[in-house]
Amino acid sequence: MIYNIDYKELYNNFPSGYFCSLPDGTIIDSNNRFLDLTNYTREEVIGKKKFTDFLSQGGKIYFENVFSPALKLKGTIEEINFNFIKKEGVKFPVLINSVEVKDKEGIHLFTQSAIFNISQRKKYEHELLIAKRKANDLSNELIDINKELLSSAELILKQKSQLEEFNQHLENKNRQLSSFAHIASHNLRAPVSNLMALKDFYKESIDLEDKGMLFSKVEIVISHLNETLSELIESVKIQGNKGITHDPIIFDSVFHKTLEILDNQILDSKAVVTSNFSEFPNIKYPKLYMESIMLNLLSNSIRYSSPDRIAKIHFSTEINNNEVMFIAKDNGLGIDLQKHGHKLFGLNNTFHRHPDSKGVGLFMTKTQIEAIGGSITVESEVDKGTTFKIVLKKNIS
Amino acid sequence: MIRKRPLIGIIDDDEIYQFTLTRIINHNKRAERVITFSDGEKAIQYLADNKAINENIPDIIFLDLNMPIMDGWQFMEEYASVKTEIKKKVNIFMWSSSVNPIDIERASEISEISDYIIKPMNLEEVKIFFEKLETLL
User: Fold this and answer.
1) Which positions in chain B have a beta carbon within 8 angstroms of at least one beta carbon in chain A?
2) Where are the domains of chain B?
3) What is the ipTM of this complex?
4) CATH 3.30.565.10 residue ranges in chain A?
């Protein structure tokens, strides 16, 4: 089948605008579509308008500096976006493809340009831009919400650790309180009931000598009671003294001071007391506590040394899992931990028939150590010796 | 028939308590004799030494819970092995200042312990206790 195509008709009604211009830009021909797009008549354009007459100021600058040189260089240019100005001054976006037509010698005769109206596409682009901006805003909002969530999660974690710390504190307090309840029932009830009984006897007694004897017993109980109360007050002081200053301490100098204080006991017992603090020579710790801890441990070790062998007592420091350990080791009588372990650190608990046994030292030592956040444990074998392991501080830093 | 008064043993590290309890017992003529020990180990030693001599074995023992060297629980453990060689009924009363329910529960599970009594008791309470005891023996 053969169609008779009218190319003139096709040229004029093609859905894109066409125009032909001289090298100086003067338009010498255009199709109807171009005239429709720009709202000019053929007479107003042909031979009168130049390419650049349809461009805005910015468009003209772009034309001179980019479009023209590029076209001259390659002879063709595609899909350049300009805003064309209609006769009434309204702008509309177009894409331009241009090609230079040359003669056999390569002389530039004229330029053919096709322009595509892209108003719709620009509108879509604009809508897309708006949608993209909205999406960006939403994404930013989400990022902000996420940040908020993260920071509230952080806050919750922080609160959780605070709660845990608080709980630890409460547990500590609880343990102290139950230890106080224990002390109150054992160490205070008994002397008070003794006093009551003695008072009843005293009232019933008619014999002066008997009354005197009873009163001397009352004095004994009162002095015990007084001692127990002093110890309790001391331990309350220690537990309440959270803000106690941590002094820079050299273990060696506290050790030597302790040796001087116990000089007589060491000489009498012929104990060999040694030390090695080289692994951790200094610490920040309440000086009073450190002195009291060393004094208690050393005097205990001397007091409960075995009569069958020369007493050897060794103090040292160690770092263990980032914890500062103080270790006191002796080869003395030892303690049956199976029997006495549970009350080793209690007030007024003694395990040896020794005239000096008062059962205060270890109670106070434990109270002091725990007040600083440390702990004390013991290993012992009867007639072999005892080792106290003290965690002074959980964190070296 | 005149009943023979019991031999009473007191195991307690509190010397004043030993004194007051002994005095109440003697004052009210509740015992033939009172013997005292300041801890469980001394009491076990005495029982082991006298297991063959019936008149030296206490009819009643007042046992304190918290004592140095050997406490009330440890005494009961040791006593279980000494007991088989003693040809006499011994009533053991655990007297303690501990109001801890765990201690009371534990005492009730030991068949050799006749009763658990919470210290302190005033003179009147001690007298009432002995009057009740009279009917039990």
Assistant:
1) 14, 16-17, 19-20, 23-24, 66, 68-71, 74, 97-100, 119-123
2) 7-136
3) 0.74
4) 242-393
CA A368 to chain centre: 30
Q: Where are the beta strands (DSSP E) in A86-190?
A: 91-102, 108-117
Could you report the per-residue pLDDT of B70-94, keeping only the tens digit for each? 888 888 888 888 888 888 888 888 8
Q: Hey, are the CB atoms on A192 and B121 less than 8 Å from each other? A: no
Whole-model pTM?
0.53
Q: Could you give the C-alpha distances from A356 to A258, A299, A352, A361, B59, in angstroms and in order?
A: 19, 10, 10, 11, 35
The Cα A224–Cα A218 span in angstroms is 10
Asked whether the beta carbons of residue B20 and residue A194 sit closer than 8 angstroms, the reply is: yes
Angstrom distance (rounded) from CA A258 to CA A252: 10
Question: Which residues lie below 8 Å from residue A18, measured CB to CB, with a gap of 6+?
Answer: A11, A30, A31, A33, A34, A112, A113, A114, A115
- pLDDT tens-digit map of A324-373: 999 999 999 988 887 776 667 766 555 555 555 555 578 888 888 888 88
> How far apart are the C-alpha atoms of A13 and A221, rounded to whole Å?
127
Instruction: Give the CATH fold of the B7-136 domain.
Output: Rossmann fold (3.40.50)
Rounded Cα distance, A195 and A199, in Å = 6
Q: How far is Cα B4 from Cα B134, in angstroms, rounded to an integer?
A: 11
Cα distances (Å, whole numbers) of residue A84 to A19, A41, A92, B41? 14, 16, 5, 117
Domain A168-240: top CATH class: mainly alpha
Q: Which CATH superfamily is domain A7-124 in?
A: PAS domain (3.30.450.20)
- CATH C-level class of A242-393: alpha beta
CB atoms within 10 A of CB A373: 13
Q: Which of B70, B100, B120 sits opposite A189 (nearest CB)?
A: B120
Residues of chain A with CATH 1.10.287: 168-240
CB pairs under 8 A between A and B: 61
Q: Which segments of chain B does DSSP mark as H helices, in order?
A: 15-27, 40-49, 72-83, 101-109, 123-136
